[in-house]
Write a structure and sequence with these properties.
Distance between the termini: 41 Å
Helix content: 40-55%
Largest sheet: 6 strands, parallel
Number of domains: 2
Radius of gyration: 17 Å
Structural class: alpha/beta
Strand order of the largest sheet: 2-1-3-4-5-6
Shape: globular
Strand content: 5-15%
CATH topology of the largest domain: Rossmann fold
CATH architecture of the largest domain: 3-Layer(aba) Sandwich
Length: about 220
């Protein structure tokens, strides 16, 4: 069972999400919060697997709340939901620790799929923001020293480069002429060496260190 917390300052939105989640046999809504501070408190108490996090909330906003709930040991996955299709929102949400980003007008099935994907350790983004997200990474000055990648082997660096370009494990395996299980092993090892939770954070580091650049 995937335990979910919903954080949104609009009661109507929370009600709609509650209805959607209640129809899913493998998803359990364990709490709702109307602001960022309440979301942080609720997550500390309920220890959910996934948090559906609004961006614009009173008090502590969704970005800072995401940063807080993902700073603990064994943190929940955060799926950011917003009506604001803005580059800065996406970029800041990723830096704060979000594992996914969807607009609130996404179809119901896409939302429930996203919950399952991020709960399983994957990442998911609205198609409309992916291209601009990469452009945003390229526009900003690197924030991470290239030396952060020195612990990686040549093959792990190669795999990270392909991950950052959006390739799946199967696609990377085909590119490198290895098995998919081998790619999974490389990904697990590079995540551990870099001290990041998931592929999303590894991609952030890859771009911010200058390892990968758009259209490189």
């Amino acid at each position: 069972m995937i335990r979910v917390v919903v954080a949104d300052d609009q009661a109507l939105v929370r009600s709609g999400l509650r209805m959607i989640l209640s129809s899913e046999a493998d998803i359990e809504l364990v709490g709702e919060a109307a602001d960022g501070d309440s979301a942080v408190t609720l997550c500390a108490r309920e220890r959910p697997d996934v948090v559906l996090m609004d961006v614009r909330m009173p008090g502590l906003d969704g970005i800072d709340a995401t940063r807080a709930v993902t700073a603990v040991e064994d943190p929940p996955r955060v799926l950011v939901l917003t009506t604001f299709d803005l580059d800065d929102v996406v970029y800041d949400a990723l830096r704060a620790g979000a594992s996914g980003f969807l607009l609130k007008d996404a179809p119901e099935e896409r939302l429930t799929t996203a919950i399952r994907v991020v709960a399983d350790g994957g990442s998911l983004f609205a198609p409309s923001v992916t291209r601009r997200l990469i452009e945003e990474f390229s526009r900003r000055a690197p924030r991470t020293e290239p030396g952060a990648l020195e612990a990686l082997t040549e093959r792990e660096t190669e795999v990270l480069t392909q991950v950052a370009r959006g390739l799946s494990n199967a696609e990377i395996a085909a590119e490198l002429f290895v098995t998919e299980n081998t790619v999974k092993t490389h990904v697990a090892r590079l995540l551990m060496k870099l001290g990041v939770r998931d592929r999303v954070q590894a991609v952030v580091l890859a771009y911010e260190s200058g390892l990968v650049r758009p259209r490189s």
